[in-house]
User: Fold these one by one.
Assistant:
Number 1:
Amino acid sequence: MRILSVVGARPQFVKLAPIATAMNAHAQHLIVHTGQHYDEMMSDVFFKDLGIPVPDFNLGVGSGRHGKQTGTMLAGLEEIFEQERPDWVLVYGDTNSTLAAAIAAVKLHIPLAHLEAGLRSFNRRMPEEHNRVLTDHASDLLLAPTEVAMAHLANEGLAERSSLVGDVMTDVLFRTRETVQARSMALPAGVDTGEYYVSTIHRPDNTDDPARLSQIVDSLARLDKPVVLLAHPRLVDLARRHGLNLSTGAISVAPPLAYPQLINAVMNSAGVITDSGGLQKEAFLLRVPCTTIRPETEWVETVDLGWNVLVSKDLGSLTAVVERPAPAPTTATPYGTGVAAEAVVSALLGGR
Ligand code: UD1
């Protein structure tokens, strides 16, 4: 069997890693990188650290407006799919690369599988929400990470095509945690174990409006411990355009980290403040309290279990929320036990 994976953005490289390993023994696996993320620290370093094979194709699409970026990928992917005619196209998550590959596959009648199917924020302002809903409805096989995701798919009439496989990011995280613990890695510069926060902010809703970004930065600057702000290129770019200084008060700005360094930084921190999807879950799995600067989350289990608190409109409460008392311990495993990639490969090979 020939399976072709399409990835393009940082979180997709993380999801690809355990799939590429699990695929090894069972199927011929081709990898296409759209080039949506292209900086060394946003792309190459993940392939190296996570032992992902070099992609068979790289479209080198780069940044751009949503329509042009997605359209350019679609045109490039169509050619590759036509040439390779895989048994499955496998797409990951909710980025523009996901949607472009889904459209290209469905137009060529190539079976399409969606990993991380069924997640919903129900926020139609998010580009990721359009991407994931459209991709789910185009897919022949929906690989869902959680029971909640399965329920969303059933509500949309997609139960027949859905399969609960667990969360592949949990696979990577557990494996990486072992490596990190064995290696005793350095913490980000200038901070002590348990005495700092890790933050990432990159979503358009938080970065595009100068007043909102400035309010977020002000709140982080006032926190009771140093904040290591791991700055996505989008944040750096927009802060510069808004004339906003990010290195203020408690905040120290650092470039994005490689995956093992990120896990190490989160594991040893007092808390995470983010608008990323994956980081909320990683914090939960490492049992580090998280504060999410968004009105909703797709990873509702992190909130229900008390490890994640959402702050959106009332940014004035951000400091108090971050400095809240530690949540009650839990042994719940809503994201599986770290063996999702094997389940994905079995589903693709035949038995759902
Ligand atoms: C994309 C995904 C988002 C995901 C995020 C992870 C979409 C719609 N969004 O958002 O779901 O959470 O990736 O990081 O697909 N840039 C660089 N170098 C890079 C990549 C980007 O400088 O390697 C800059 C460019 O200025 C670019 C901006 O970041 O315009 C945004 O990049 P883009 O890929 O459009 O979206 P992200 O915000 O990264």
Number 2:
Amino acid sequence: MNILVTGGAGYIGSHVVKELLDTKHQVITYDNLQKGHKEAILGGIFVKGDLADKALLDQTFKKYDIDAVIHLAADSLVGESMEKPAKYYQNNVINGLNLLDTMIANDVKKIVFSSTAAVYGDVKEIPITEDLSKKPTSVYGKSKLFFEEIMQDYDQAYGLKYISLRYFNASGADESGKIGEDHNPESHLIPIVLQKALGLREKLAIFGTDYPTRDGSCVRDYIHVTDLAQAHILSVNALAEGKASTIYNLGNGDGYSVKEVIATASEVVGTNIEAVIGNRRPGDPATLIASSNRIKRELGWNPQYGDLKTIIETAWKWHKNHPNGFKK
Ligand code: UFG
């Protein structure tokens, strides 16, 4: 198939593109490079474009005879989404509609969508299964949930088939060390911890140690980005084989606290990474752990890098050799 990957220059997108290059599919990356990095795209065709540009989207579908879409292009910062809801609804919902409408106009009816654990909000039932109630606590989470619902309506009306992948905490880097996480500003725990280890940051704060968890710090389900990428390939292949629209969680089913992440990272880098205790970050749920049984059962997804130490080792390989990210 000719597969359009929107947001293919981003952290997760670039790992999806890399894994797709090892399959028989053709990859066409579509990215506006606002946050993504051209250097992160390790092969295939690249089109610099925005989802707001309907004419370019349509032209791209026709020129490359697109068969299926993996849609990752989005804004994804929880905090920013609360301050700038318009930006999130515009980009994640309205620009996403341009993509869906271009798909329908070109008779392309298979899409794998990059969704998030943020659609659930602060749930009490652990592990989280796909059918639990969805009460997102951020505009970001809402924008992703709205898009899932829109795809459902497009399925009913136009026969669009979608697989929505709700990621938990994407982390780690490709084993080659050639690509990895490079956000500006960086807000994610593991890169921040490793930047502290490299002396690139003065301070590392643990956001709250008074949560009802085993050591008081928040517990998250960290999943390796290559395992995430493989799930996209299984999903797009399943759609090609006629799979009905489905939603899957993607996590390891294990939770690690912020303190445990810092301790494991200290072990990996071989020095004690110092952290101070800070205030809670507004909106952080205490514990988020996924049940990914559905995708394991239905698509045979089998994560290879589940162990936290392995995840941090791959991230460390990237950060150590690219302290400034993709910048030379
Ligand atoms: N944390 C710290 N110090 C830091 C950074 C993070 O203690 O300097 C803590 C956070 O409070 C949280 C944990 O580390 O408890 C993980 O934080 P991240 O920012 O790495 O990840 P989140 O769990 O907040 O967010 C992730 C995704 C979001 C998604 C969300 C779903 O990055 O896109 O899960 O809840 F929306």
